[in-house]
Amino acid sequence: MLFESQITRLPRPFDPELGAEARAAVPALSGDLAKLIEGTAGSSPYLKSLIHKEADWVPEALQDADAALAQLFAELRAGAPDQRATTLRAAKRKVALLTALADLAGAWSLEKVTGTLTDFADLASQLALEATIGAEIRRKKLPGATEDDIPTAGGMVSIAMGKMGARELNYSSDIDLICLFDESRFDADDYHDARASFIRATRKMAAMLNDITGDGYVFRTDLRLRPDPAVTPVCLAMEAAERYYESLGRTWERAAYIKARPSAGDLAAGQKFLDTLTPFVWRKHLDFAAIQDAHDMRLRIREHKGLGGEITLDGHNMKLGRGGIREIEFFTQTRQLIAGGRDPYLRDRHTVPGLRKLASKGWVPEDVAEALSDHYRFHREVEHRVQMVADAQTHLLPKSEEGWGKIAGLMGRDEADIRADLHDRLTEVHEMTEGFFAPDAAPVEGGVEIPHTFDEDVIARWESYPAMRSVRAVEIFNRVRPEILRRMAQAPKPDEALLALDGFLRGLPAGVQLFSLFEANPQLIDLLVDVVGTAPALAQHLSRNSGVFDAVIGGSFFTDWPGVRGLTDELQERLARDADYEAQLDGTRRWSKEWQFRIGVHHLRGLIGAEEAGRQYADLAEAVLAGLWQPVADHFAAKHGPMPGRGAIVLGMGSLGAQRLNATSDLDLIVIYDADGVEASEGRRPLAARPYYARFTQALVTALSAPMSQGRLYEVDMRLRPSGTQGPVATSLASFKNYQRDEAWTWEHLALTRARPVTGAPELMAEVEGFRQEVLAAERDKAAIGKDVQEMRARIAAAKAPDGPWDAKIGAGRLQDIELLSQTGALLAGSARRTVAQGLQAGVAIGWLSASDASDLASTYRLCWQVQLASKLLSGSTIVPDEIGEGGRAFLLRETGADDIESVVDTLTEATQKAAETVTTALASTGKV
Predict the structure, then answer these.
(1) pLDDT tens digits, 116-139
(2) Is the dihedral of CA 713, 719, 722, 727 positive or negative?
(3) Between these two residues, 889 and 182, which has the higher pLDDT value?
(4) Residue 557 DSSP class
(5) What is the pTM of this model?
(6) Is 833 exposed, middle or buried, given 0-12, 13-18 or 19+ CB atoms closer than 10 A?
(7) Phi-psi map region of 9: left, alpha, beta (phi>0 left; psi -120 to 50 alpha)
């Protein structure tokens, strides 16, 4: 497209005579192109000088700017390495002139202007590096390297930082580079020679770009963003840099690496290095402590540069001053640091797209993101014009009338209009960002009215807890403590809530991140008070896994339940981000705990009832199994080869099969495989089929139950497999079928009524389910079943007595007893349905149970389940009403619909006694069905 047709605005000459001189230098131009030259040269002495130097090239370049740039870049690549210093400087003049004209004419967007400047910086640094590394290689100074290694700089890379990394270079930008080399390419004996060679090449590259000669310079080049620049060489081994960031890296360096990208040399090695820094830059948990770090950094910059005080336009720093470019960048990067560890979508090098992504995920209000983006673009345009006047790396607005006149001329606007617009924009940016970094100071306790007198001895011991080990943790906690106490004073039983909070703080291993989270999100204090004041068991879980608070403000905590498919998809997506197996297992634990916390909170707050909670806990367990199945299989296959034959499946038994778990349930599993005649696996260390699947099963169990930094997922019970603990941990399909047909006891067929394939090879899952239904439908001796079940019931009763009247699981007429009767009904009826209600209805269908008995049993089962889930949530053990607190008792009453605690236990006792009688009568009449 012709450049002239893209013009949307034109500069005006501050000095018309200078503008006319430049116009006369390019007589071939007319119309808007001539006006563009005149307005530009009349307001910028620097650009006027470039127009005169490149007068023969300008008319051609302004025919098609994109083609002119492409040709210029191609000529540079084809040029002789020993002429690079000269050709790069000549090219810099042309690039600087063309981008300025395109910018001033509005022919290019801001992104294209900054992108073009960055493309040239990338090319210049690549060509300079090729020249200097090439010289080292030709002089045999870089061990083992040949001329084929020149394009990848022999294993060296420059990492573009800051605006260059983000492809947002300003008009007179310097370039920030961190130069590294891949030490793994060299033998230990060659390491020091290689290091010395790379250091020489880096210095010469920087000089080629940076030094001012009679032809000018290419880019001011800054190598000081590398680790500890005062004592380290200009080019570092990647391993040394990685160790530095792991042990000493600071928040500002994390923020800097948001924009980092490999720009020249061995780009693949550079990207690999950046990938290793991902855990350093992007923390696993929401990192609200970064806010204080960023705010402290802002204050240090202001103090160092003397930029405090009110906004005064004359001499104002557009980059570092109040309301300036850096404020918007800090605002964006800090939000990214907070949430980007959990959500890779937010990891964007670019400022405006980064704001847009933050807004789309709810981290920044839409109107704020839109306003800041608009201000950012305007600020960058003003910054460019300030720099275009004299090619100065400055961000200071002019102080003289002449200076303002030139800026106004380059912008094609009236000076008064620009001043007013700029002041308004700077003020609005400051107001929008200052409130985020430095909200109104948290009040001290003396300034907050706390309508309750708490036990000072309890409060005094908090400073001795592990969470308060650091000075910073104490400082942050002291800022949020008044608000915590104020909200706790509003609890029904403030003193109970205080003791519960005390237990929470005592179990908290560290405090900075969590206290920062509360400071930035005060609404979470209400949730904390709710949890610690109502559900001590959940609070204990919370103190050990405080990172689950991240999920509350992650955007989806109160959305609809996603179901097994949605959960599995989310987990698999997360696991795909981690190539490391241990990281995948730990990541699954962290993810699962967040969802468990969500279920508990939803249940606690009445958003779901016990029935829904039981199903959701089961959905979560199934998603964990489905999500981990392939990573475990892949990890195992890496050593022993893929699964021989048709593969394997997990058969969920018990409560998992029936899709009803509680917060502390273990998982009853059977692993079934079909080698399909294949004798052994094919891998580096092949195994015969039977030990292969046995060891794979052990690996799966370990993945679920091994304690790691994030705890364990589930305890696993495999005693329901054929022959119990005496049989192999993995069962072949043929053995499973033979056993179920010919050897299984009645209790094992009862267990089969709730069995459900949950993950593994789809065809094998379907076959096992079909076989299960076939076994259950077979004719059987009903009297013998009744006799076996009565004996089993007696053994269960003898083995374990109920833990008082509040034990909802153990005892006649309670959960376990009614489940046994339901399974018996399903087995007698040949039904493959799994739930308790379905088993009872199967008994009604064959005339074994009356409809009223089935209804009463189902009602009693629901009550027991409500009490059971409440006990797991509130205390983790059998309920003791006097110990669960006012909040716990209120929750229990809401769940059961009772008026008082006495009514709950009376109803529970009466209903379970009646249920026990019904179970006894039904089992005695089994032979009559």
Answers:
(1) 999 999 999 999 999 999 999 999
(2) positive
(3) 182
(4) T
(5) 0.69
(6) middle
(7) beta
